[in-house]
Amino acid sequence: MTTKTKQEQDQVDDVRVHVREHYGKLAAERVPIVQESCCGPSAESGCCGSGGELSGEAMAHVSKLYQSADVLELPPDVTEMSFGCGDPVTLATLNPGETVLDLGSGGGIDVFLAGKRVGESGRVIGVDMTAEMIEKARANQAKVGATNVEFRLGEIEHLPVADDSVDVIISNCVVNLSPDKPQVFRETFRVLKSGGRLAVSDIVTDGPLPDEIKSSLSAWAGCVAGALDVKDYIAAIEAAGFVDVQVKPVYFDKAMVDQAVADLDLEDQVDTDNDAVYKSAFSANVTAHKP
Ligand SMILES: C[S@@+](CC[C@H](N)C(=O)[O-])C[C@H]1O[C@@H](n2cnc3c(N)ncnc32)[C@H](O)[C@@H]1O
After folding, report:
1. Over the Cα atoms of the chain, what is R_g?
2. Are 14 and 217 in contact (CB under 8 A)?
3. Is there a domain that residue 25 lies in?
4. Which residue's C-alpha comes closest to atom 4 of ligand 1?
5. What is the pLDDT of residue 169?
6. Domain of 281: which CATH number?
7. pLDDT of residue 118
């Protein structure tokens, strides 16, 4: 583990403050996915765009993102707060009785879906660093009536979870937001039981992003600038001790990238070469095991 210089630590702090403010605002205003989202499928669904009917658009978004019809049974207050870029619960193939941890649980959508899969003998913990998101997730829990889930305030780089206590770690479009991804993977390794597994949906890149995107805090909070190159992502997971690391692209959608870039509110409003972004950033399913 390397010690950070003051400048590096300041950058980490800046990113964390900006990301927390961004998602705190989304949770407090309860901005639906049709108006503001981190990542998602095409503009066809309205995600990352603006306008449209609230619940219908939200349903279209989650139906496209999630493979299981379970998502359609959740209350609109939950599905409207889907900020993910994949379906980690399906990817994880959960079993009854398992203990699951969701990194960056947001409004709780994947926690509730996982809770249904693991049943009353299992347990799901959602961790999120944004107090407003935790508050929203707990309010959603009351609406869902889930008794086998809980939400904890904390950073995924310093998980409020005991060593060797979790069977499966899921996460939906969150690790890319972390300013210290190697530390996230070290923490996930620490809390997983031996033989435990990681099933994560995330944005990764294959090739460089334009500089104006890379240097924008707004693009970081929008799940683009913080995305790691796929080779570095795999290396960070392996360095933490994981084996059988696999990264599979899920979808690659030009319309989504156009809309996401348009929504980024880049500080300097320079023209961005979206082609460079489509060629580079994509959503991926990431799996790995703790030996
Ligand atoms: C893009 S949203 C995804 C929310 C949820 N997973 C979903 O699919 O709807 C990112 C969430 O991760 C949280 N988050 C971002 N960085 C975090 C960190 N370093 N530690 C804990 N939570 C974090 C944010 O507060 C926000 O709720």
Report:
1. 18
2. yes
3. yes
4. 106
5. 98
6. 3.40.50.150
7. 98
Ligand 1, atom 26, residue with closest C-alpha: 106
Could you tell me if the CB of 210 is within 6 A of ligand 1? no
84 lines ligand 1 (CB under 6 A): yes
What stretches of the chain show up as alpha helix (H) in DSSP? 6-29, 54-65, 76-79, 88-92, 109-118, 131-144, 181-191, 211-214, 217-221, 230-239, 254-262, 274-280
Residue 190 lies in a domain: yes
* 156 touches ligand 1 (CB under 6 Å): yes
Which tens digits make up the pLDDT trace of 207-241? 778 777 787 777 788 787 888 889 999 999 999 99
| pTM, rounded to two decimals | 0.88
Choosing from 113, 138, 177, 185 the residue with most ligand 1 atoms within 8 A of its CB, the one to mutate for a pocket test is: 177
Mutation choice for ligand 1 from 16, 113, 174, 187, CB with most ligand atoms inside 8 A: 174
For the stretch 110-120, pLDDT in tens is 999 999 999 99
Atom 27 of ligand 1, residue of closest alpha carbon: 106
- Domain region containing 129: 6-289
| C-alpha to C-alpha distance for 38 and 22, rounded to whole angstroms | 10
In a domain, 221, yes or no: yes
Q: How far apart are CA 29 and CA 11, in angstroms?
A: 27
Question: Which of the residues in the chain have pLDDT under 70?
Answer: 1-2, 31-55, 251-279
Q: How far is the CA of 260 from the centre of ligand 1 (A)?
A: 17
Total count of domains within the chain:
1
Task: Determine, yes or no, domain membership for 72.
Answer: yes
